[in-house]
């Protein structure tokens, strides 16, 4: 691995700003890292090296000035349901129009305005909802921690590219957990901002009442820096221990987490308590009804989006996506309205649970990553998701790595914050991240160790 | 032919799929009914 590729976003940004790191050298180091490892990991659908080199050369003209924008010279890549001008957006589907995008997605526009450099498009699951299949236009992304294990869904390439040190920042989308799943499974950090906090224009929708775009990086501090640049807000620093509400019932009672997950969560709770963090039990709506409300909303809205093509050319959709999209056809207005009523109730209960704490904490998943070729285990992994809650209610949620499973794959915890307080949530995330004994940002996927 | 309600499939404009993707329609119908029950707490 090249040493420059391992730099965190904040370190690279500061080194570029101080004149220690040449933006073009940095881009070249990342392109070399991609050349070496992506044939095995397959995180990218498209690497736009020439555009990135040209942008880095332009950065050089302004290098070493004192008024640089906040992400000056920082390369990033996006999930391939987000537009980059001049490049096709594939959504990993044969059903999608892949004409080059006429303009950048709003979130890409903001990153470029902040000085960042687009490097390419990343693998996803078909339309953010299918499962990887042999007939997909591009091969499925692999987990850098173990190439036969799933990298999570559906922003799979976003998580894998960060774990593989291909880029310091990726942008994913999260309608039912699609940022936090690959964040956990690749040992990186993913923020699902609150609903409406970042513009979704130029990202292909899945279920518009829950769709969000959000930043993913290797540390909570890096994600905070990216979110600050995206929203033109200031990062928040926390020095005192937070007060955290434990949503243990979600992984202890509503579903029974595996021994791996339970051990990592219990260790995290012990670590935080030992550092002066107040941890109190809180309860929210039952997992079964939260998940049903979320999936009903998602299926109804996704069917409405794809209805015409489903009627005319169903053969264009992948075998796992087709029945999922068709599910919305058999749900009626009563189902949808009941789901919306439950969403409002769940949001109110979550607000109430957050009244006297800084954030809520639960697991990201009740199960650790499994093998990609084990269909039964993949189904179980999907069923064990604890991510839909924040999509249903629209609250911001942060996935942080917290330890390794017995098979050596990352597992993590999830922090849920108050609406409109992403930076406060990220500040708690940085405080927590620094105090977990089961995880260190220095931990590398075995594939990357010892190669220099 | 899909086993899910043929009248409903017709009304939804999915008759063509009933011939060519019957298994997918039946799977989708079963999934929808499961979600409806889960939402009702059943």
Notable features of this structure?
heterodimer, A: 452 residues, alpha/beta, 11-stranded mixed beta sheet, 11 strands, B: 42 residues, mainly alpha
Structural description of this entry:
The complex is a heterodimer of chains A (452) and B (42). Helices cover 40% and strands 12% of the residues of chain A. Chain A contains 15 helices and eleven strands. Chain A has an eleven-stranded mixed sheet, with helices on both faces. In chain A, helix 5 packs parallel to helix 6 (180-186) and helix 10 packs antiparallel against helix 12. Chain B has 42 residues and is an all-alpha fold. In chain B, 71% of the residues lie in helices and 0% in strands. The interface between A and B is medium-sized, with 28 and 23 residues.
Shape of chain B: elongated
Dominant shape of chain A? globular
* Strand content range of chain B: under 5%
Largest interface, counted by CB within 8 Å of the partner chain's CB: A-B, 28 and 23 residues
Tell me roughly what share of residues is in helical segments of chain B: over 70%
Number of helical stretches of at least 4 residues of chain B:
3
- Multimer state: heterodimer
One letter per element, helices H and strands E, the order of chain A comes to HHEHEHEHEHEEHEHHEHHHEHHEEH
Amount of helix of chain A: 40-55%
Return residue spans of chain A where pLDDT drops below 50 for at least 5 consecutive residues. none
Structural class of chain B: mainly alpha
Terminal residue distance of chain B: 29 Å
The first-to-last residue Cα distance of chain A is 5 Å
In short:
The complex is a heterodimer of chains A (452) and B (42). Chain A has 452 residues and is of the alpha/beta class. Chain A has helices spanning 9-18, 23-41, 49-62, 106-113, 156-163, 180-186, 220-231, 248-254, 259-274, 287-312, 321-327, 333-353, 375-383, 388-393, 422-433; strands at 44-47, 75-79, 117-122, 170-173, 189-192, 213-217, 243-246, 278-281, 359-363, 397-404, 410-416.
């Amino acid at each position: 691995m090249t040493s420059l590729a391992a730099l965190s976003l904040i370190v690279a940004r500061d080194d570029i700003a101080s004149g220690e790191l040449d933006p073009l050298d940095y881009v070249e180091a990342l392109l070399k890292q991609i050349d070496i490892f992506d044939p095995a990991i397959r995180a990218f659908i498209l690497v736009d090296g020439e555009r990135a080199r040209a942008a880095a050369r332009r950065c050089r003209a302004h290098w070493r000035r004192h008024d640089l924008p906040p992400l000056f010279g920082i390369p990033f890549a996006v999930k391939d349901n987000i537009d980059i001008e001049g490049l096709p957006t594939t959504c990993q589907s044969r059903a999608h129009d892949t004409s080059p995008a006429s303009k950048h997605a709003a979130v890409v526009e903001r990153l470029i305005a902040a000085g960042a450099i687009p490097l390419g498009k990343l693998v996803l699951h078909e339309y953010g909802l299918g499962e990887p299949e042999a007939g997909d236009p591009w091969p499925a992304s692999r987990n850098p921690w173990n190439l036969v294990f799933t990298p999570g869904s559906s922003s799979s390439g976003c998580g894998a590219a960060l774990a593989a040190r291909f880029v310091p920042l990726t942008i994913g989308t999260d309608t039912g957990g699609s940022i936090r799943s690959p964040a956990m499974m690749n040992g990186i950090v993913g923020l699902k901002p609150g609903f409406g906090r970042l513009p979704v224009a130029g990202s292909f929708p899945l279920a518009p009442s829950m769709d969000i775009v959000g930043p993913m990086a290797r540390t909570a501090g890096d994600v905070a820096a990216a979110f600050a640049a995206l929203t033109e807000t200031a990062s928040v620093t926390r020095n005192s221990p937070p007060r955290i509400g434990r949503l243990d019932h979600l992984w202890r009672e509503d579903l029974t987490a595996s021994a791996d997950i339970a051990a990592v969560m219990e260790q995290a709770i012990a670590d935080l308590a030992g550092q002066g963090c107040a941890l109190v039990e809180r309860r929210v709506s039952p997992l079964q009804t939260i998940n049903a409300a979320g999936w009903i909303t998602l299926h109804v809205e996704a069917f409405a989006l794809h209805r015409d093509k489903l009627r005319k050319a169903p053969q264009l959709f992948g075998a796992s996506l087709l029945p999922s999209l068709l599910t919305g056809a058999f749900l009626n207005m009563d189902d949808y309205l009941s789901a919306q009523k439950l969403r409002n109730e769940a949001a109110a209960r979550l607000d109430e649970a957050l009244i006297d704490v800084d954030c809520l904490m639960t697991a990201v998943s009740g199960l650790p990553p499994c093998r990609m070729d084990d269909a039964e285990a993949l189904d179980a992994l999907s069923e064990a998701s604890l991510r839909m809650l924040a999509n249903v209610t629209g609250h911001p949620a942060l996935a942080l790595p917290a330890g390794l499973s017995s098979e050596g794959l990352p597992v993590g915890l999830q922090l849920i914050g108050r609406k409109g307080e992403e930076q406060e949530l990220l500040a708690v995330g940085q405080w927590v991240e620094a105090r977990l004994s089961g995880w260190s940002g220095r931990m590398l996927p075995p594939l990357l160790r010892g190669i220099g | 032919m899909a086993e899910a309600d043929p009248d409903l499939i017709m009304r939804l404009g999915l008759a063509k799929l009933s011939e060519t993707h019957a298994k997918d329609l039946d799977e989708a119908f079963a999934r929808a009914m499961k979600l409806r029950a889960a939402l009702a707490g059943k």
